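step=encode ok
step=design start
structure_in=
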């Protein structure tokens, strides 16, 4: 009998439902509470569906990590590009804030790598590199206007990511700490991005050596240790 046109037993809709349920479970009760049986039961399907689509509980966790960077990268990629690349980067940082607030479980699993083993991170590292490449493209526009002060795009991306991750972790830990958290983010991001134009300070008593004009413009291949 021909199978042309026959729907797959476990399709993308099932995968999306399982992943959304897994995310809710981790957000509500932590990664330790995640189980194949529990997720399948909540969705109203079988454990076979989970194993067919994700391979194992670890595969489900890997999919959560990859989804974190897929969402983040897609959101930054859709931002409009204006004549002010510095302001555009501030907007990219605010996208990071919205992502962390709307998906705290994905932030924990993907960005902070709160994982049971390093091997799981290796399995969604590619998704992180893809998202990082989109940030590199935004920073390249700033580099084209000599706005990185001699820093490489990769170094500026690491600093940008570190600030965003730290701000997100602080806000999620204590949401009431600041009456205007978005304003705090905007001020911190603006200070960092505008500060990129200043050459890095000298270290160990040696004067800072600015990179040759335009040297920071090339987009380095994202390293295996993406932020």
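sequence_out=
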């Amino acid at each position: 009998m021909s199978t042309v046109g026959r729907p797959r037993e476990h399709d993308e809709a099932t995968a999306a439902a399982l992943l959304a349920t897994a995310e809710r479970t981790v957000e509500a009760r932590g990664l330790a509470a995640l189980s194949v049986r529990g997720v399948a039961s909540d969705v109203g399907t079988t454990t076979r569906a989970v194993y067919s689509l994700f391979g194992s509980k670890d595969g489900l966790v890997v999919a959560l990590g990859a989804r974190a960077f897929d969402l983040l990268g897609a959101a930054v990629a859709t931002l409009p590009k204006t004549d002010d690349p510095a302001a555009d980067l501030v907007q990219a940082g605010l996208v990071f804030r919205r992502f962390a607030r709307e998906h705290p479980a994905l932030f924990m699993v993907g960005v902070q790598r709160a994982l049971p083993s390093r091997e799981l991170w290796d399995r969604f590292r590619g998704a992180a590199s893809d998202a990082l490449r989109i940030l590199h493209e935004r920073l390249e526009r700033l580099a084209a206007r000599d706005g990185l002060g001699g820093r490489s795009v990769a170094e500026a991306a690491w600093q940008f990511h570190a600030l965003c991750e730290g701000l997100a972790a602080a806000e999620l830990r204590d949401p009431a700490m600041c009456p205007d958290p978005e304003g705090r983010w905007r001020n911190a991001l603006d200070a960092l991005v505008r500060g990129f134009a200043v050459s890095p300070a000298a270290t160990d008593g040696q004067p800072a050596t600015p990179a040759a004009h335009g040297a920071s413009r090339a987009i380095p291949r994202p390293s295996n240790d993406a932020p």
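step=design ok
step=annotate ok -> The CA atoms of residues 14 and 124 lie 21 Å apart.
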